[in-house]
Amino acid sequence: MTAFIDADNLNELDPFVLWDHFEAKEIIRTTGLDYHGHSGVDAISYPVTGRLRHLDSSGSHVTLNSGDIHVMTSGNGIIHKDTMTPQDGRVESFSLWTALPAGHKEMDDASSSNVSSHQIPLVEEIDSATKVLIGNYKGSVSPIKYSIPVTYLDIIIAPYGVWHFQPDKSQTTGFVYIRSGRAYIGGNQLHPHQMGTLTPSSLPLEIRTGSIGTRLFVSLGEPLHQPLISSGCSVHSSAVNMSLGTQNIKRLMAAKKMSGL
């Protein structure tokens, strides 16, 4: 598991509060995490190899196939369990979290939604193919309704190719993550499992490849400009909301244990 974004760069990457790449090989049985809780965040799950079984306290019981998207809005508290079933002995998935806006949305009741891969737009260009997971790309809009303005793209670029995009002017925070291959951005070279933080610019985002093609993610968002207090599993704009979310998670865990007796 490769996790990015921590307390040191939380404010720099506002509204993004977690990026996680989970990958395992030679798996012969299901793998995952038992019930645990979150609050104050939107959590996007994106399995790309294997199937993901998701159960949560909002009532969502769903199995995601490779390429499907699941969004869990934790609000004032949610508990969930995720289990991955391998494909040819491998599992791989990505998790992206964003903070929820301070106020009503941050402490609203939890909810979940999911969209199958065939419903997600794929934009094919001369050098690239771009899957629009969240937001919009060159006129193609994801069907996923999200809490805040975010663009989340899964991109394949051919060898000696170029990919360019003019982000929304309000989405000034972002990063690029390389899944495979190599990419060149603003004179910098990125390799697999490397994240590059983007700086605000009025110029289009341009990504190039050399002799090796690449698969990468681009995430862009509009900063919330609010305090971001993290407990590791939850993020809130105030200590009061963090306390309320923590208490609710404990209550949900206790209720889960009681129901299992």
Offer a concise description of the structure:
This protein is mainly beta and 261 residues long.
Features:
about 260 residues; mainly beta; 6-stranded antiparallel sheet; 1 helix; about 50% strand; globular
Structural account:
- The protein is mainly beta and about 260 residues long.
- Helix content is about 10%, strand content about 50%.
- The strands form seven sheets. It has a six-stranded antiparallel sheet, with no helix packed on it.
- It is globular, with a radius of gyration of 18 Å.
- The mean pLDDT is about 90.
- InterPro entries: Pirin, Pirin_N_dom, RmlC-like_jellyroll, RmlC_Cupin_sf.
- It holds the Pfam family Pirin.
Unreliable runs? none
Largest sheet: 6 strands, antiparallel
Mean pLDDT: 92
Q: Using only CA atoms, what is the Rg?
A: 18 Å
Query: Level of helix content?
Result: under 10%
In percent terms, what proportion of residues is strand?
A: over 45%
Q: What is the strand arrangement across the widest sheet?
A: 1-2-9-4-7-10
| Number of separate strands | 24
What is the 3D form? globular
Structural class: mainly beta
Q: Can you write the helix and strand succession as a string?
A: EEEEEEEEEEEEEEEEEEEEEEEEH
Helix tally?
1
